[in-house]
Amino acid sequence: QVQLVESGGGLVQAGGSLRLSCAASGRTFSSSAMGWFRQAPGKEREFVAAIKWSGTNTNYADSVKGRFAISRDNGKNTMYLQMNSLKPEDPAVYYCAADSRPFRAVVTRDRSEYHYWGQGTQVTVFS
Q: How many C-beta neighbours within 10 Å does residue 88 have?
């Protein structure tokens, strides 16, 4: 079992930066692929970024590639999302998620592949 808690959301001006964190409890964090998803009002939850259990492979949505960076620190059981050059289309509730299957080689964008979810943190961008 993995419990996930996001933090770091807030209000930022367009062009600014935020760093989200996802703290995980449980012994399986270091063997689990992790992902960030977001959901804006009236829209479906969409993939943002994902990282392999080892941190050696990442995957990004085209809309954030080059602006966002996902990383993890397995020693601290924490995953991060550095968000730069925030745009008016980025506001949403951001969720972190974990895959329950250990040591997977793939880094998937499919939200059905993630079995544990945090409660979300709100990101608001103003211009």
A: 9
